[in-house]
């Protein structure tokens, strides 16, 4: 009999506790919990349909239908509808076409499937390529985004499981007869043609339900691998379905745990675990056939022996880890928390929640209160002169002061997934811009009292606010999130956080990549004389220069610069860039009779002529230019031909103040200062006015946050 000492017992329990903590930790976060339930529901749906796919050899049909969803998804995205509904419509059309063409005796069924496969895929690509704006992440469509599963998606999946169960139960006898003897099925009055249609419908439900989790390219990881692994252990259809559901559920949980700790793409990891389970089943089945079940158990024990030997001799000190995605004082949301921060000429600030349409005002005390409110928060005798946002915080400048507003909505991008957060709206405080707060090299300059916020940029550690004088205030982003402004560091130059560094262009035109602490770094080969205007894109940091633009990018662990010169000496140079966050296509005003488009990917400048522009923006490469002219009309301009594609009046008269066109992946927002309104524009739908937000103040300044 085995006797354990108290120390050995403690070590065993400690190791067991750490192992349980390793398994449970990922599921302490809400979005992983939703991902798990979504994956479990999809596993059940795929088990019901995938069993028949494996038994009947319908893999090619499943592949064709999975790729045939693209037209429906593309149309749904362009119309602003639900992607799952669009996928369902497209997949249903595909299923109907397969059922119809398969009746022909002139060619085999796989010929019809292949033709529809190519046709639907081509149609989807054409829709995407010809659309002026396509806001769907194609990577998520192809490989899935299980970590973005929302509560509403779980209800769709639950409904899909219910429909699949009904089809599987009612059609079981007909499916069995159709699989093994279609002629006998017809003799028994089981309607094999109707059964074939129902079976294709079951497959349709499974594919539509799965694509949001693992995407179209990896859908077979859950549709085929678990049932294929299950057939090694039973030859009864219901038992195979049950085992397949269990294997799919295990693949989901194991894939999420591995993805959490290793940092891999969640959908692909789930599919890989499912395929791995198939090969393990195949190997164990072969061992059982050769050595019997006892031999298989012995082999499994031997395989696990190295894992036992790798156990630590003594338990290291336990370290309490912060759950992935946890942010103190914030609530994690299932979708992006878009907000608009607007301010009037007297300093009043309003925060508009674009999801709930709730408007919150910030009075002088700094504590938020619902609107309507007559409270005023003057920043200086001259009134606000500039407003910029870094994705979460808005920075409002006036009369030598800069007020900071926490909009309470932001996004954290981890590459393969994103976290969306919401927190209370508040005003952390303000700082003086008229005098340097300290630090080496501080030099506010003679016009410091008139410095205006020109741009704001943030990473996980720093928030940098660029002023029109060419100086930058650098804040501790973590402290700001906790409500503490602290003492910012002032840099004489335009400084932008990028790739865990600060990219700085000074007054002499020198471009330098410094450490986050401001320490001297690598001076770049290219210079940027008379730097004005900056932006952060997926391809690097962009600075506007007198002779063009300089792009600073990280490559192979280092930094490189590249100059994109104007096509000819430009009298009306770009001084302020606008773009959709992350986009590589930038826009800027080009004097009084044109606008600039800077394509970072193609390394080109394009000047489009239009009379009296006052604001410009674009959703990205190939999208229409959105140009607001002085008469209050918003124009959609084809970026290639320069012709107008649509227009809409967004002001009752000539534009006043500083109009803004803010663009996100779905909508554009234009402030109507004269009418005290903010218009939401569906820029991919002929500039349709989707919503209008009435304001109790004149929205003279505006910035969008939450992105």
Give a structural overview.
By secondary structure, this protein is an alpha+beta fold. It has 16 helices and 35 strands. The chain has a five-stranded antiparallel sheet, with no helix packed on it. The chain is elongated, with a radius of gyration of 30 Å. It starts with 5 loop residues before the first helix and ends with a strand.
Keywords summarizing the entry:
707 residues; alpha+beta; five-stranded antiparallel β-sheet; four-stranded antiparallel β-sheet; 16 helices; 26% strand; elongated
Summarize the structure.
Helix content is about 35%, strand content about 25%.
Residue stretches low in confidence (pLDDT < 50, at least 5 long) are 132-137, 302-322, 364-381, 436-449
Percent strand:
25-35%
Percent helix among the residues? 25-40%
Shape: elongated
Quick one: biggest sheet? Answer: 5 strands, antiparallel
Mean pLDDT: 78
Alpha plus pi helix count: 16
Number of E strands: 35
The structural class is alpha+beta
Q: How would you name the oligomeric state of the polypeptide chains in this document?
A: single chain
Query: Order of strands across the biggest sheet?
Result: 5-4-3-2-35
First-last Cα distance: 63 Å
Radius of gyration: 30 Å
């Amino acid at each position: 009999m085995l006797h354990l000492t108290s120390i050995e017992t403690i070590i065993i329990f400690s190791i067991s506790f750490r192992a349980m903590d390793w398994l449970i930790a990922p599921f302490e976060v809400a979005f992983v919990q939703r991902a798990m339930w979504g994956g479990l529901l999809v596993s059940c749906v795929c088990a019901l349909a995938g069993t028949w796919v494996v038994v009947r050899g319908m893999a090619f049909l499943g592949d064709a239908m999975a790729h045939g969803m693209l037209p429906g998804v593309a149309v749904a995205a362009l119309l602003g509808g639900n992607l799952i509904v669009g996928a369902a419509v497209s997949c249903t059309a595909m299923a109907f076409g397969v059922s119809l063409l398969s009746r022909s005796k002139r060619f085999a069924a796989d010929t019809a499937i292949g033709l529809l496969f190519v046709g639907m895929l081509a149609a989807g690509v054409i829709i995407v390529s010809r659309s002026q704006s396509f806001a769907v992440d194609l990577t998520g469509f192809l490989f899935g985004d299980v970590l973005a599963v929302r509560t509403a998606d779980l209800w769709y999946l639950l409904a899909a499981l219910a429909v699949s169960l009904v089809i599987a139960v009612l059609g079981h006898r007909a499916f069995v007869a159709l699989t093994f003897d279609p002629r006998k099925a017809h003799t028994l009055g089981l309607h094999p043609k109707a059964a074939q249609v129902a079976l294709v419908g079951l497959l349709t439900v499974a594919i539509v339900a799965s694509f949001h989790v693992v995407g179209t390219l990896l859908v077979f990881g859950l549709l085929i691998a678990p049932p294929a692994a299950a057939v090694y252990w039973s030859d009864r259809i219901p038992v195979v379905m049950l085992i397949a559901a269990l294997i799919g559920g295990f693949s989901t949980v194991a894939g999420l745990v591995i993805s959490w700790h290793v940092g891999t793409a969640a959908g692909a990891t789930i599919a890989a675990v499912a395929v791995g389970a198939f090969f393990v089943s195949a190997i164990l089945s072969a061992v059982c056939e050769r050595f019997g079940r006892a031999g298989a158990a012995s082999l499994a024990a031997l395989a696990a022996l190295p894992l036992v030997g790798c156990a630590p001799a003594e338990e290291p000190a336990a370290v309490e880890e912060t759950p992935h995605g946890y942010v103190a004082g914030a609530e994690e949301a299932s979708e992006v928390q878009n907000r608009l921060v607007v301010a009037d000429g007297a300093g009043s600030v309003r925060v508009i929640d674009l999801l709930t349409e709730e408007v919150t005002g910030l009075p002088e005390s700094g504590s938020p209160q619902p609107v309507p409110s007559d409270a005023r928060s003057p920043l200086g005798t001259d009134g606000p002169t500039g407003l910029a946002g870094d994705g979460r915080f808005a920075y409002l400048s006036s009369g030598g002061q800069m007020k900071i507003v926490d909009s309470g909505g932001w996004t954290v991008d981890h590459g393969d997934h994103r976290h969306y957060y919401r927190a209370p709206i508040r005003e952390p405080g303000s700082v003086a811009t008229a005098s340097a707060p300290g630090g080496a090299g501080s030099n506010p300059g003679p016009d410091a009292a008139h410095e205006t916020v020109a741009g704001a940029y943030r990473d996980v550690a720093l928030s940098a606010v660029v002023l029109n004088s060419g100086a930058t205030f650098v804040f501790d982003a973590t402290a700001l999130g906790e409500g503490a402004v602290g003492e910012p560091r002032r840099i004489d130059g335009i400084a932008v956080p990028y790739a865990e560094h600060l990219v700085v262009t000074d007054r002499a035109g020198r471009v330098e990549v410094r450490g986050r602490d401001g320490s001297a770094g690598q001076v770049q080969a290219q210079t940027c004389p008379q730097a004005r205007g900056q932006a952060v894109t997926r391809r690097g940091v962009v600075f506007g220069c007198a002779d063009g633009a300089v792009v600073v990018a990280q490559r192979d662990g280092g930094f490189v610069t590249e100059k994109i010169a104007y096509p000819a000496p430009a009298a009306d140079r770009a001084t302020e860039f606008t773009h959709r966050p992350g986009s590589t296509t930038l826009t800027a005003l080009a004097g009084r009779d044109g606008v600039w488009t800077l394509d970072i990917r193609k390394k080109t400048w394009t000047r489009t002529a239009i009379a009296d522009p006052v604001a410009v923006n674009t959703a990205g490469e190939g999208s229409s230019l959105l140009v607001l002219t002085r008469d209050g009309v918003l124009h959609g301009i084809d970026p290639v031909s320069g012709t107008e594609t649509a227009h809409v009046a967004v002001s009752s008269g000539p534009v006043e103040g500083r109009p803004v066109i803010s663009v996100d992946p779905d909508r554009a927002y234009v402030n109507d200062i004269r009418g005290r309104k903010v218009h939401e524009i569906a820029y991919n739908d002929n500039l349709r006015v989707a919503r209008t937000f009435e304001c109790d103040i004149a929205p003279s300044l505006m910035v969008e946050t939450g992105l």
